[in-house]
Specification:
The chain is an alpha/beta fold. Helices cover 46% and strands 21% of the residues. A seven-stranded mixed sheet has the order 4-3-2-5-6-9-8. The protein has a two-stranded antiparallel ribbon with strand order 1-7. The two termini are 32 Å apart. The structure holds S-adenosylmethionine.
Length: 278
């Protein structure tokens, strides 16, 4: 695991309160990578990532799903409308909670979705209350990842599944690759990035059985080629500087993350784990 001790939780919250509009305008309604099979548009690729994770996790009608770090609620809405599940989304950002709730209402999905503004590291739910605990690209922001998996395992019903997509640190990194990962953590407000082995260990130690541990790096990398082109084309630096100059750092690290994927300093991982029945 590579850590970046300077990251603070209030800065993460601020980043999503301020940055959500930018993500929506310049990327789409999901704040996650696209998953490319061929030359699909970014919007289709983003949906494909959600759908692929949902297929692996077996999300279906009547699934009670907890979406940890739900962003603007796009995955929750998609799963609620296409798979008829009930999604409870949690985000640390008040702006995102309001956004997610409003869009769900406009799309007629209020009864199948609930959005909460809370810290996933402190929120509590009754034991065994969800069939699926789902998180796309949020665990990177958590300070105590092993503890989160322990708690998530408790929220799952026996037989339920954990479904995670996460940015990972690569294995056996030399000094310059470690620096690449550190720069990504600093630029994108991640207190740490775990390796694939770290995630597998944390998940297993929480009592869950890992069913899939997949490397999606090659499928998702072009996200950052597209984002890099877009920030230059739309002069995003100038726009973001008008709102909050301290938020500019992540715009400067788009090439850093792309280079980190290319050098093997980072990977993109998908994990599915099941809670044993007994
Ligand atoms: C990269 S975005 C991913 C959003 C969403 N999962 C998606 O795929 O569109 C990270 C999300 O994690 C949320 N987040 C970060 N730290 C959190 C915490 N401690 N508790 C709850 N949500 C958190 C952010 O508010 C944001 O919604």
């Amino acid at each position: 695991m590579i850590t970046c001790p300077s990251v603070r939780k209030d800065v993460i919250r601020d980043h999503y309160d301020v940055g959500t509009l930018f993500y929506r305008l310049f990327w789409g309604s999901h704040i996650h990578h696209g998953y490319w099979e061929a030359d699909e548009s970014p919007a289709v690729a983003q949906d494909q990532l959600t759908d692929r994770l949902a297929d692996l996790a077996g999300v279906e009608s009547k699934t009670a799903l907890l979406d940890v770090g739900c962003g603007m609620g796009a995955s929750s809405r998609r799963l609620a409308s296409l798979r008829r599940c009930h999604a409870t989304g949690v985000t640390i950002s008040r702006v995102q909670r309001r956004w997610a709730t409003t869009v769900a209402r406009l799309r007629g999905l209020s009864r199948q979705t609930t959005f909460l503004c809370a810290d996933a590291e402190t929120i509590s739910f009754p034991a065994a209350s969800f069939d699926t605990v789902w998180s796309i690209e949020c665990t990177e922001h958590l300070f105590n990842k092993p503890r989160f998996f322990q708690r998530a395992a408790g929220w799952l019903k026996p037989g339920g599944r954990l479904a995670i997509c996460a940015w990972l640190a690569g294995d056996n990194l030399d000094e310059s690759r470690r620096q690449q990962v550190y720069d990504v953590c600093e630029g994108f407000f991640c207190p740490s990035l775990g390796t694939r082995a770290d995630y597998e260990q944390w998940i297993s130690e929480s009592g869950l059985v890992v069913e899939h541990s997949e490397d999606w790096t090659a499928r998702v990398m072009q996200t950052w080629e597209i984002c890099s082109r877009r920030i230059h084309r739309y002069s995003l630096h100038r726009l973001a500087g008008l709102v909050r100059p301290s938020q500019l750092i992540f715009l400067d690290r788009f090439d850093t993350i792309l280079n980190a994927y290319r050098s093997g300093a980072m990977q993109y991982g998908c994990f599915i784990a099941r809670k044993p029945l007994a």
